[in-house]
Write a structure and sequence with these properties.
It is built from ten helices and eight strands. By secondary structure, it is of the alpha/beta class. Helix 3 packs across helix 4. It is globular and about 45 Å long.
Protein backbone atom coordinates (compact mmCIF):
# COMPACT_ATOMS: atom_id res chain seq x y z
CA UNK A 1 0.00 0.00 0.00
CA UNK A 2 2.85 2.37 0.88
CA UNK A 3 4.51 1.73 -2.47
CA UNK A 4 1.22 2.27 -4.31
CA UNK A 5 0.61 5.62 -2.60
CA UNK A 6 4.16 6.74 -3.37
CA UNK A 7 3.63 5.96 -7.06
CA UNK A 8 0.54 8.18 -7.01
CA UNK A 9 2.28 11.09 -5.28
CA UNK A 10 5.67 11.11 -7.01
CA UNK A 11 5.92 11.65 -10.77
CA UNK A 12 9.62 12.10 -11.60
CA UNK A 13 10.25 13.09 -15.22
CA UNK A 14 13.03 11.69 -17.34
CA UNK A 15 16.20 13.62 -16.38
CA UNK A 16 16.47 16.87 -18.31
CA UNK A 17 20.19 17.36 -17.61
CA UNK A 18 23.48 15.50 -17.42
CA UNK A 19 26.81 15.64 -15.66
CA UNK A 20 27.92 18.53 -17.85
CA UNK A 21 25.29 20.97 -16.50
CA UNK A 22 26.95 24.18 -15.33
CA UNK A 23 26.48 24.75 -11.61
CA UNK A 24 25.84 21.07 -10.84
CA UNK A 25 26.77 20.06 -7.28
CA UNK A 26 26.62 16.67 -5.59
CA UNK A 27 26.41 15.68 -1.94
CA UNK A 28 24.98 12.82 0.12
CA UNK A 29 21.86 12.54 2.23
CA UNK A 30 21.92 10.96 5.68
CA UNK A 31 20.82 7.66 4.16
CA UNK A 32 23.94 7.70 1.94
CA UNK A 33 22.11 8.36 -1.32
CA UNK A 34 23.68 10.94 -3.69
CA UNK A 35 21.72 14.16 -4.08
CA UNK A 36 22.11 16.39 -7.14
CA UNK A 37 21.64 20.13 -6.99
CA UNK A 38 22.04 23.28 -9.04
CA UNK A 39 23.87 26.16 -7.35
CA UNK A 40 23.71 29.84 -8.28
CA UNK A 41 26.15 31.42 -5.79
CA UNK A 42 26.59 35.09 -4.92
CA UNK A 43 29.76 36.11 -3.08
CA UNK A 44 29.05 37.77 0.25
CA UNK A 45 25.28 37.20 0.01
CA UNK A 46 23.49 37.99 3.31
CA UNK A 47 21.03 35.14 2.69
CA UNK A 48 20.93 31.80 0.93
CA UNK A 49 17.77 30.30 -0.55
CA UNK A 50 17.13 26.56 -0.64
CA UNK A 51 14.64 26.05 -3.46
CA UNK A 52 12.55 22.88 -3.42
CA UNK A 53 10.72 22.27 -6.68
CA UNK A 54 7.37 20.69 -7.37
CA UNK A 55 6.44 17.34 -8.81
CA UNK A 56 7.16 16.31 -12.41
CA UNK A 57 10.19 18.62 -12.71
CA UNK A 58 13.90 18.57 -11.95
CA UNK A 59 16.69 21.09 -11.48
CA UNK A 60 17.63 20.87 -15.14
CA UNK A 61 14.55 22.99 -15.81
CA UNK A 62 15.48 25.59 -13.21
CA UNK A 63 18.63 27.13 -14.69
CA UNK A 64 17.17 30.45 -15.79
CA UNK A 65 14.91 30.61 -12.73
CA UNK A 66 17.74 30.15 -10.20
CA UNK A 67 20.01 32.52 -12.12
CA UNK A 68 17.37 35.25 -12.01
CA UNK A 69 16.75 34.52 -8.34
CA UNK A 70 20.44 35.12 -7.61
CA UNK A 71 20.18 38.64 -9.10
CA UNK A 72 18.19 39.51 -5.96
CA UNK A 73 21.52 39.29 -4.13
CA UNK A 74 21.10 35.82 -2.61
CA UNK A 75 22.85 32.52 -3.22
CA UNK A 76 20.37 29.90 -4.41
CA UNK A 77 20.52 26.11 -4.36
CA UNK A 78 17.88 23.94 -6.01
CA UNK A 79 17.93 20.22 -5.27
CA UNK A 80 16.43 17.09 -6.77
CA UNK A 81 14.59 14.56 -4.63
CA UNK A 82 15.57 10.88 -4.79
CA UNK A 83 14.54 9.45 -8.14
CA UNK A 84 14.47 12.91 -9.76
CA UNK A 85 17.17 14.12 -12.13
CA UNK A 86 20.54 12.69 -11.11
CA UNK A 87 19.58 12.13 -7.47
CA UNK A 88 19.63 8.44 -6.59
CA UNK A 89 17.25 6.33 -4.52
CA UNK A 90 13.50 5.81 -4.41
CA UNK A 91 11.18 8.77 -3.87
CA UNK A 92 9.27 8.76 -0.59
CA UNK A 93 8.18 11.35 1.93
CA UNK A 94 11.05 10.50 4.27
CA UNK A 95 13.57 10.49 1.41
CA UNK A 96 12.54 13.98 0.25
CA UNK A 97 13.10 15.31 3.77
CA UNK A 98 16.53 13.64 3.90
CA UNK A 99 17.50 15.22 0.56
CA UNK A 100 16.31 18.65 1.73
CA UNK A 101 18.30 18.28 4.96
CA UNK A 102 21.35 17.45 2.86
CA UNK A 103 20.80 20.61 0.82
CA UNK A 104 20.61 22.66 4.00
CA UNK A 105 23.81 21.01 5.21
CA UNK A 106 25.54 21.79 1.91
CA UNK A 107 24.68 25.48 2.23
CA UNK A 108 25.76 25.50 5.85
CA UNK A 109 29.12 24.12 4.72
CA UNK A 110 29.44 27.12 2.41
CA UNK A 111 29.01 29.53 5.32
CA UNK A 112 25.22 29.97 5.38
CA UNK A 113 23.78 29.03 8.80
CA UNK A 114 20.05 28.13 8.90
CA UNK A 115 19.17 31.44 10.57
CA UNK A 116 20.36 33.16 7.37
CA UNK A 117 18.60 30.74 5.07
CA UNK A 118 15.22 31.05 3.35
CA UNK A 119 13.31 27.92 2.36
CA UNK A 120 11.25 28.36 -0.81
CA UNK A 121 9.04 25.47 -1.85
CA UNK A 122 6.80 25.19 -4.86
CA UNK A 123 3.80 22.83 -4.70
CA UNK A 124 5.12 19.56 -3.25
CA UNK A 125 8.32 21.41 -2.38
CA UNK A 126 6.38 23.74 -0.10
CA UNK A 127 5.44 20.84 2.12
CA UNK A 128 9.07 19.66 2.21
CA UNK A 129 10.17 23.20 3.08
CA UNK A 130 7.62 23.38 5.90
CA UNK A 131 8.93 20.17 7.42
CA UNK A 132 12.46 21.60 7.34
CA UNK A 133 11.26 24.87 8.89
CA UNK A 134 9.87 22.94 11.87
CA UNK A 135 13.32 21.43 12.48
CA UNK A 136 15.50 24.53 12.06
CA UNK A 137 15.26 28.19 13.01
CA UNK A 138 15.44 29.61 9.48
CA UNK A 139 15.21 33.21 8.32
CA UNK A 140 12.02 32.76 6.31
CA UNK A 141 9.69 30.38 4.50
CA UNK A 142 8.03 30.87 1.10
CA UNK A 143 5.14 28.57 0.17
CA UNK A 144 4.21 28.80 -3.50
CA UNK A 145 1.14 26.91 -4.77
CA UNK A 146 1.43 24.57 -1.79
CA UNK A 147 -1.21 22.11 -0.56
CA UNK A 148 -2.48 21.52 2.97
CA UNK A 149 -1.79 17.78 2.53
CA UNK A 150 -1.20 15.38 -0.34
CA UNK A 151 -4.51 13.53 0.03
CA UNK A 152 -6.43 16.79 0.43
CA UNK A 153 -5.50 17.69 -3.17
CA UNK A 154 -7.54 14.73 -4.41
CA UNK A 155 -10.19 14.28 -1.70
CA UNK A 156 -12.39 16.84 0.14
CA UNK A 157 -11.55 15.44 3.59
CA UNK A 158 -9.02 16.20 6.27
CA UNK A 159 -7.20 13.78 8.58
CA UNK A 160 -7.40 10.75 6.31
CA UNK A 161 -5.44 7.70 7.51
CA UNK A 162 -2.06 7.43 5.83
CA UNK A 163 -2.07 11.01 4.55
CA UNK A 164 1.30 12.38 3.43
CA UNK A 165 2.99 15.78 3.48
CA UNK A 166 0.60 17.21 6.07
CA UNK A 167 1.63 20.84 5.67
CA UNK A 168 -1.36 22.33 7.49
CA UNK A 169 -0.74 20.26 10.61
CA UNK A 170 2.92 21.32 10.72
CA UNK A 171 2.83 24.99 9.85
CA UNK A 172 1.82 26.22 13.34
CA UNK A 173 5.23 24.97 14.55
CA UNK A 174 7.08 27.23 12.09
CA UNK A 175 8.54 30.29 13.85
CA UNK A 176 9.92 32.14 10.82
CA UNK A 177 8.07 34.76 8.75
CA UNK A 178 6.04 33.01 6.02
CA UNK A 179 5.06 34.28 2.58
CA UNK A 180 2.19 32.36 0.95
CA UNK A 181 1.92 32.80 -2.83
CA UNK A 182 -0.95 31.22 -4.77
CA UNK A 183 -2.69 31.65 -8.10
CA UNK A 184 -6.39 32.47 -8.04
CA UNK A 185 -7.03 30.00 -10.89
CA UNK A 186 -4.87 27.13 -9.66
CA UNK A 187 -6.50 24.09 -11.22
CA UNK A 188 -4.37 21.54 -9.33
CA UNK A 189 -4.11 22.95 -5.80
CA UNK A 190 -6.99 25.36 -5.30
CA UNK A 191 -6.29 28.68 -3.63
CA UNK A 192 -8.29 27.45 -0.64
CA UNK A 193 -5.19 25.49 0.36
CA UNK A 194 -3.15 28.70 0.46
CA UNK A 195 -5.79 30.51 2.51
CA UNK A 196 -5.95 27.70 5.05
CA UNK A 197 -2.18 27.61 5.43
CA UNK A 198 -2.11 31.37 5.93
CA UNK A 199 -4.88 31.29 8.54
CA UNK A 200 -2.97 28.71 10.57
CA UNK A 201 -0.27 31.32 11.24
CA UNK A 202 -0.40 34.29 13.64
CA UNK A 203 -1.04 37.61 11.84
CA UNK A 204 2.39 39.00 12.75
CA UNK A 205 4.12 36.10 11.04
CA UNK A 206 2.23 35.83 7.79
CA UNK A 207 2.40 37.56 4.43
CA UNK A 208 0.43 36.64 1.32
CA UNK A 209 0.15 37.33 -2.37
CA UNK A 210 -2.68 36.03 -4.54
CA UNK A 211 -1.70 36.15 -8.21
CA UNK A 212 -4.80 37.02 -10.17
CA UNK A 213 -5.47 34.68 -13.11
CA UNK A 214 -2.49 32.39 -12.41
CA UNK A 215 -2.79 28.61 -12.54
CA UNK A 216 -0.61 25.97 -10.95
CA UNK A 217 2.18 25.82 -13.53
CA UNK A 218 2.22 29.36 -14.91
CA UNK A 219 2.25 31.51 -11.79
CA UNK A 220 5.65 33.14 -12.33
CA UNK A 221 4.90 33.72 -16.02
CA UNK A 222 1.52 35.31 -15.30
CA UNK A 223 2.95 37.46 -12.52
CA UNK A 224 5.89 38.63 -14.65
CA UNK A 225 8.25 41.15 -13.07
CA UNK A 226 5.95 41.46 -10.06
CA UNK A 227 6.99 37.94 -9.05
CA UNK A 228 10.59 38.99 -8.51
CA UNK A 229 9.60 42.26 -6.89
CA UNK A 230 7.46 40.37 -4.36
CA UNK A 231 10.27 37.93 -3.53
CA UNK A 232 12.77 40.79 -3.14
CA UNK A 233 10.33 42.67 -0.91
CA UNK A 234 9.96 39.64 1.36
CA UNK A 235 13.69 38.93 1.52
CA UNK A 236 14.68 42.46 2.53
CA UNK A 237 11.93 42.51 5.19
CA UNK A 238 13.39 39.56 7.08
CA UNK A 239 14.93 40.31 10.51
CA UNK A 240 18.02 38.28 9.55
CA UNK A 241 18.85 40.84 6.84
CA UNK A 242 18.78 43.71 9.31
CA UNK A 243 21.21 41.95 11.67
CA UNK A 244 24.93 42.24 10.88
Amino acid sequence: MTSFVDRLIFVPPSPTYGEEMEGLVRFRASDGEPVAGLLAPVDGAPLAVLFLHGNAEDVGQLGAFLSTYSTLGVSVLGIDYPGYGLSRGQPSERATYAAAEAGLGFLRGRGHPPERMVLHGRSLGGSVATELATRHRVAGLILESTFTSAFRVMLPFDHLPGDRFTTLAKIPRVEAPVLVIHGTRDEVVSQDHGHRLLEALPPSQRRSWWVEGAGHNDLAAVAGRAYWHKLAEFLVSLPAVARP
